[in-house]
Design brief:
This protein is mostly beta strands. Among the domains are: 88 residues, Beta Barrel (Thrombin, subunit H), CATH 2.40.10; 132 residues, TolB, C-terminal domain (Neuraminidase, 6 Propeller). The strands form seven sheets. It has a four-stranded antiparallel beta sheet with strand order 4-5-6-7, with no helix packed on it. The chain is globular and about 50 Å long. The N and C termini lie far apart (64 Å).
């Protein structure tokens, strides 16, 4: 029988203590090490961390929270998530500590059908589809507070996209009708509604950080628009169109330095980067069909997909460096977990959460 020396037993004891610490952290829901960000798993209905660094990361198990979520959106800086529990209540989840904490947020709308978060995460809004109402929220980084509620009942057509500004004072809404195309509206917290012009069918809207200006992805007209002054009825200008190679845009994002717009082109499997100061767009090929642009930690990373049972594609270098130097963008991916990938192919499809 092999005998262990006293020093060997000491090494084993240290290893056992380290393993116990890791298991304890996992049991208590602690998140440690580099975290790229979080995503909401619509099948398991949990928030899951993306651990590691760009090009070497993986999707961890869901966070053990004291609430069962039905939907959730993560703030661009990954400081918090805003979700809806299975009873329809609004929940604020602080993601800044090793152990996430959640608490309820009181709002005046009857049903939360969708959650909106502003470009920097300072503000948010909740949409009640049945009542066609939106309620603004402020103080999202410290103490979420419900503000004014405005009606969208007079907007013509079905809502196709919504966005909220960082000051929690302005909402940008896009609608579409079957025969007459779509329209854009600016809605202030005081309830004032201003028409901002026509679109084909806008599938995505994005305010510029800390501004009253916004970007529009008009899918049906293959145009990306900029609106200056959403709250006061400012006009729209075309930044790029199908003639420039921007075909059927699905999502749009304003980089943190407000130097360019990033646009997801799912049909062609490309990303377009359009200078906001004017100029021709640049394109980046992706071996995927990008349909969303969700900021991860630091805002230099954009998540292009969200199903953890498939590879998650990420754009790295989504903005200019702080000194103004250009950053060469690249696309990396987070591999799907093998067991979940197999389960995805075998399991029947699960209904998605209504938005």
């Amino acid at each position: 029988m092999q005998r262990f020396s006293r020093s060997s037993w000491g090494v084993l004891a240290v290893a056992a203590l380290a393993l116990a610490a890791v298991l304890s952290a996992a049991t208590e829901g602690a998140v440690s090490g580099p975290v790229l960000g979080y995503l909401f798993d619509q099948q398991q209905l949990v928030l899951r961390p993306i651990l590691g660094v760009p090009g070497a990361s993986h999707i961890a198990e869901g966070l053990p929270l004291n609430v069962q979520l039905a939907m959730a959106e993560v703030a661009p800086g990954q400081q918090y998530a805003l979700g809806v529990d299975t009873d329809g209540g609004l929940v604020w989840i602080d993601l800044r500590g090793e152990t996430p904490q959640s608490r309820p947020v009181s709002v005046g709308v009857s049903t939360v059908s969708r959650v909106l978060i502003s470009p920097t995460g300072q503000a948010a809004a909740v949409y009640d589809r049945r009542a066609r109402q939106v309620q603004f929220l402020s103080g999202m980084l410290t103490q979420p507070t419900a503000g004014a509620t405005v009606s969208l009942a007079d907007l013509q057509g079905l809502l196709t996209a919504l966005a909220v500004s960082d000051d929690a004072r302005t909402l940008l809404a896009a609608t579409a009708t079957r025969d007459a195309g779509g329209s854009l509206y600016g809605v202030t917290a005081s309830g004032e509604v201003r028409g901002l012009g026509s679109v084909g069918r806008a599938l995505a809207l994005a305010f510029l950080p800390a501004q009253d200006n916004a970007l529009v992805a008009d899918h049906d007209r293959s145009e990306v628009l900029r609106i200056n002054g959403v709250s006061n009825g400012g006009g729209a200008t075309v930044l790029a169109s199908g003639r420039d190679g921007v075909q059927k845009p699905m999502a749009v994002f304003a980089d943190v330095n407000q130097s360019k717009a990033v646009v997801a082109l799912a049909e062609s499997g490309r990303l377009a980067m359009i200078p906001l100061g004017g100029g021709a767009p640049q394109f980046l090929d992706c071996s995927c069909r990008p349909q969303e642009l969700s900021a991860l930690r630091g805002n230099s990373l954009l998540r292009l997909s969200s199903d953890p049972r498939r590879p998650i594609y990420v754009l790295e270098g989504a903005h200019l460096a702080s000194d103004g130097a250009s950053v060469d963008p690249r696309i990396v991916f987070v591999p799907a977990n093998p067991g979940e990938e197999a389960a995805q192919s075998a399991a029947p499809p699960r209904p998605t959460v209504a938005r």
